[in-house]
Design a protein that fits this description.
With 245 residues, the protein is α+β, with helices and mostly antiparallel strands. The chain folds into 3 domains: 10-70, no CATH class; 81-128, no CATH class; 165-240, His-Me finger endonuclease fold. The chain has 8 helices and 11 strands. It has a 3-stranded antiparallel beta sheet with strand order 5-6-7, with no helix packed on it. A two-stranded antiparallel ribbon has the order 1-2. A hairpin with a 2-residue loop joins strand 5 (81-82) and strand 6. 8% of the residues are buried.
Length: 245
């Protein structure tokens, strides 16, 4: 209608004295908008809570009492951790601590879900959001190769995969006189050739055993780090050599 009053697009904040659009003000039931903008209200609230901490505690205590009256206490739940193991929040089964990953946010340092449930839920989420996963991997791959140098990538890989710094890796290499711990050949740094220096570690415990060349490291990895298989392979080579002689 022609007689209707069109509200202004903005107003001057009563506290800071700056003109701001109406989106920067909170709505009220009485006159539509507060006299102070949202930022000034937040700052005033912070100052009040700092000046009157006891009043804040009393107000929170009264609010909790009112909330408890509306929401009576629930019956006691089953204990989370017992001698039989830890309770998984997803499958409601008790498993040993080895079946849970670490999570510092919880009091016992373990995650709420067991490894099997977490793996299943992660697989389901990944299947539902496969395009998001692919796009994120693409961005990380572009950032990895475009923003980091070869030396920076090597340092990050050492820290992320083995938990050691580039200086610690260099000292390990110096302790072996720059030679492979198996074939006793000199190794090089920072390339993908057969004589490149690689960290050798136990895949079960994660313990670092030494530094090997890329060829020897791949060889024991293909034989599953099994000493019996390696000895059997050596015996096979000896027998084959004796048969041809």
């Amino acid at each position: 209608m022609a007689g209707d009053i069109v509200p202004p697009e903005g107003r001057v904040c009563k506290m800071c004295g700056v003109w701001k659009p109406l989106s920067q003000y909170s709505l009220t039931k009485r006159d539509g908008y507060l006299a102070r903008c949202k930022r000034c209200c937040l700052d005033a609230g912070k100052r009040w809570r700092t000046t009157y901490p006891e009043k804040v505690k009393a107000a929170r205590r009264r609010a909790f009492i009112r909330w408890r009256e509306k929401n009576p206490r629930l019956p006691p739940r089953e204990p989370l951790v017992t001698k039989e193991g830890r309770l998984c929040s997803n499958c409601s089964q008790r498993w040993p601590e080895e079946n849970f990953t670490t999570d510092r946010r919880n009091a016992d340092g373990l995650s709420r879900r067991c490894k099997a449930c977490a793996k299943k839920m992660h697989a389901e989420w990944r299947a539902e959001n496969i395009e998001h996963v692919r796009e994120k991997s693409r961005r990380e791959r572009v950032d990895w190769y475009s923003t980091l140098s070869v030396e920076e990538r090597r340092q990050r890989l050492l820290k992320r995969k083995y938990g050691i710094s580039a200086e610690q890796f260099a000292s390990m290499l110096d302790a072996q006189s720059g030679k492979c711990a198996i074939c006793d050949k000199y190794m090089t740094m920072g390339n993908q050739k057969a004589d490149a220096a690689c960290v050798d570690h136990d895949h079960e415990t994660g313990r670092i055993r030494g530094v090997l060349c890329s060829r020897c490291n791949s060889a024991i990895g293909l034989l599953a780090d099994d000493a019996a298989l390696l000895r059997a392979a050596a015996d096979y080579l000896v027998r084959s050599h004796d048969d041809t002689c």
